[in-house]
């Protein structure tokens, strides 16, 4: 069923006056409590009073915006757009100086220009974006003299972009009504600044409806007619985001718009919408513009500056050489320009030309849909730019346990992505996966091994496995995992059959230097009954070469919300090793034929007609 809380506004034309000019605002406080102020502004001397869009310097005080949010990523603007100058503007009151600085690719600072202000004044300083090809940024510093200095409405402006378009937001949600409403409230609170914001599509695929939240009607009204609320069966993230894309391209059939995908459980910085829209509209050619991910639990830390995927080893989230990773952004800035292969859909903007040329996402339900789309767009000649300073806070990946039902989709969908976008060396891939499966078995993760085996087998079954968008197989995977006790998370103080005192924590030895030899030895120990007794193991130490030494390992879940109990089961281990070997052997032999089937089916799988069928009658 589809419901609309308010009629979507009439789409504006490409001459929309409010879109042009603004590249980014100068903000000195984050959008929510608990987020680091140092990501926005830093006091270097004296006393400073900060508000979201203004601040006051006491006499003889200094403030810098050489920060994650305060910097203009000049290198990215010079490389990907035709913009060759930016102007900093602000309203000032009092006396002091405003100075603009730049950094080089190595982080070395240099002065650009500055001015002295007094009384009621307006600052307008223009700088050239002409010496930043390999890296560097631009920012503003402020200092007061004998009197105080007040600054407000700071902003960086650019000439009118060649494609001044509005951006339609798509939020995919599943049983997180509070998180989704909070994101909508954050958008509504900053609505006056979001001239480029068009319709906001909420695609609700859960049974705990966002519309039932007590604040839904209020936030719908606050969004001033921009909100469109859609419900549908659970088709995963791929289905949720594609439904928004489907609806937008229907409404925007006569002119262009940007589509911005956004997760429901992020902490949103609305300013990122302004920056991503301005950058996309100014690019010389259409580019995907992605926001960076900061950790929600550790909000000063950046996940990575830019990513690529290893499509042979089937590894996502690889760090582009030179990019920051798990960096403290209050202490370190990304000076070097780094180019991404794709950007995850926690927040990513796709211009309409890219959607038209690339088509719709694959109906893979969950995981790797964004990666596959990024590589498909790349093959169509389009670049992905992960834009520094445009960020959202998202759940820390390192606090998500890998022994989860989602691992099935990660394996199956990574195989599909590799089949579509590489020569697909099935033998090399099979060897890689078999090594992982043996390690899972040695680490007493039998359910995880079974989950991966099913992912391999379903890939080999061919494109028909995607016929229903993933609903059936989600139930199958969850049912499969019920047979494996170690997939269940227990309260650390209430582990079945274990007294409250628990087991002694055994810390891991240094990593082995010869993994294959150690793996073979550990398996031999397990099969011949030479393992030790029962121990507790921390999440950091839960590597297979440590866990495999014991008959029972009570392992802390990566989420830190409980523990998993892994018990040695020799019969099950032998059976899974045989199944793993058989599945990988079939992958090595039949993989190329399966890969060709997916290539042949790609146009149909990603077609509007196929997605209309999956969405059902309400999408007609």
Structure write-up:
- This protein is of the alpha+beta class.
- It has 3 domains: 21-158, Galactose-binding domain-like (Jelly Rolls); 166-398, Spore Coat Polysaccharide Biosynthesis Protein SpsA, Chain A, CATH 3.90.550; 405-575, no CATH class.
- Helix content is 31%, strand content 26%.
- It contains 15 helices and 23 strands.
- It has helices spanning 74-80, 177-189, 216-222, 236-251, 271-282, 352-358, 369-379, 406-421, 426-442, 446-460, 471-481, 515-527, 544-547, 570-605, 608-615, and strands at residues 22-25, 42-45, 48-50, 54-57, 62-64, 85-103, 109-117, 120-128, 138-157, 167-173, 197-204, 227-231, 258-263, 287-295, 301-304, 307-310, 315-319, 325-328, 347-351, 383-394, 532-537, 550-556, 563-567.
- Strands 1, 2, 3, 4, 5, 6, 7, 8 and 9 form a 9-stranded antiparallel beta sheet that branches.
- Strand 10, helix 2 and strand 11 (197-204) form a beta-alpha-beta unit.
- The longest helix has 36 residues, at 570-605.
- Residues 1-20 have low confidence and may be disordered.
What layout of secondary structure does this protein have?
Elements: E1 22-25, E2 42-45, E3 48-50, E4 54-57, E5 62-64, H1 74-80, E6 85-103, E7 109-117, E8 120-128, E9 138-157, E10 167-173, H2 177-189, E11 197-204, H3 216-222, E12 227-231, H4 236-251, E13 258-263, H5 271-282, E14 287-295, E15 301-304, E16 307-310, E17 315-319, E18 325-328, E19 347-351, H6 352-358, H7 369-379, E20 383-394, H8 406-421, H9 426-442, H10 446-460, H11 471-481, H12 515-527, E21 532-537, H13 544-547, E22 550-556, E23 563-567, H14 570-605, H15 608-615
Parallel strand pairs: 10-11, 10-13, 11-12, 14-20, 21-22
Antiparallel strand pairs: 1-9, 2-5, 3-4, 4-9, 5-9, 6-7, 6-8, 6-9, 13-19, 14-19, 15-18, 16-17, 22-23
Helix pairs in contact: 2-3, 4-15, 7-8, 8-10, 8-14, 9-10, 9-14, 10-14
